[in-house]
Design goal:
Blueprint lengths: L4 H9 L5 H11 L27 H20 L3 H13 L16 H10 L7 H10 L13 H14 L13
Helix pairs in contact: 1-3, 2-4, 3-4, 3-7, 4-6, 4-7, 5-6
Length: 175
């Protein structure tokens, strides 16, 4: 059976141990723009490896970010809560990649996605921390560079997933 892009991404959310955070993350996915499920990770085609190009490429890129979160978290010695926050942020980080019009990647997509995550969150809460990671995921290429270890961790995972020469077997990964 061939899974839809949404079903594929829900394979990644199952790694969030905290039921409340997992359900919230999955609920947010029900409200992302429709284009998220269909576009390539790079609307210009200049960036990201081949597996994240074409129809559904952004979902495959998102899964690759979660893959790197899972693979690198032991080396970064993340707690279970930090791992949950990182997975949730990885799942939602590019949810508004093409902004509100859906035509091309917008530079402020981290701001839009973080605002989307914060719309039903309280300052200082776990959800707010997810939004902080989303806001800083682009590293030095955005106005909000990472300041915490966890923010730098998510940025690193996203960076690895966006490198053209780093290929992962996307059809064989656990998320």
């Amino acid at each position: 059976m061939i899974m839809s892009n949404k079903e594929e991404l829900f394979k990644a959310t199952r790694w969030i141990a905290n039921d409340t955070l997992r359900e919230w993350t999955e609920g947010k996915l029900d409200h992302v723009p429709e284009y998220f499920w269909n576009i390539a990770a790079s609307t210009s085609g200049k960036y990201h490896p081949a597996y994240s190009q074409g129809e559904g490429g952004l979902v495959r890129h998102t899964r690759a970010v979660v893959f790197f979160v899972l693979e690198l978290s032991p080396a970064w010695e993340l707690t279970e809560k930090e791992l949950d926050i990182a997975i949730s942020a990885a799942v939602l980080h590019d949810s508004w990649k093409c902004g509100k019009d859906g035509k091309h990647t917008v530079n402020d997509h981290p701001d839009i996605a973080a605002e989307f995550a914060r719309e039903d969150s309280k300052e200082g809460s776990t959800r707010w921390k997810v939004a902080d990671l989303i806001l800083t995921h682009m590293g030095k290429w955005h106005t909000h560079p990472p300041k915490t270890n966890l923010q730098l961790f998510l940025h690193t995972c996203d960076y690895f997933a966006s490198r053209k020469l780093i290929h992962i077997p996307i059809d064989d990964i656990k998320c």
